[in-house]
Amino acid sequence: MSNTYQTSTGERVTQSQIESRMRVAKENVIQAQLDEHGYNFCVECGRNGNGTRLDMSHNISIKLAKEQGKTELCWDEENIKVRCRSCHEKLDKLILKFQNKS
To answer: Does the structure show a pLDDT above 80 at 75?
Structure first.
């Protein structure tokens, strides 16, 4: 099947299904943080003030999850963290630097 990605259980999912499941997972993560703390903040540096852009960031990238046949990591709430744009960019650069060393 083209244009589908495999999960570790063998399920095949389309990009549209991935995006839909990720949207729900991201909403759950941000709501859980809000419910627990009363506000949203970067899990790395704690920033949440005016002008702080918060992103939903994957510990294991979407690209890598798809390549490894573990596409379910794209919508795994344990793999999604709230990070400010600065920390998100730093994490992505570290991942790229680490991947380019192989």
So the answer is: yes
Q: What sections of 1-102 are H helices per DSSP?
A: 15-37, 62-67, 85-100
Residue 56, judged by CB atoms within 10 A of its CB (0-12, 13-18, 19+), counts as middle
**How is the chain split into domains, by residue range?**
4-100
Compute the residue count for the chain. Answer: 102
φ, ψ of residue 101 to 5 degrees: the values are -80, -15
CA separation for the pair 14, 56 (Å, rounded): 21
CA angle 63, 42, 8 (to 5 degrees): 30
Alpha-carbon dihedral sign for residues 24, 70, 60, 64: negative
Residues 28, 10: Cα–Cα separation, whole Å: 25
Question: For residue 100, what pLDDT band results from cuts at 50, 70 and 90?
Answer: low
Average pLDDT of span 4-10: 95
- Residue 31 gets which letter from DSSP? H
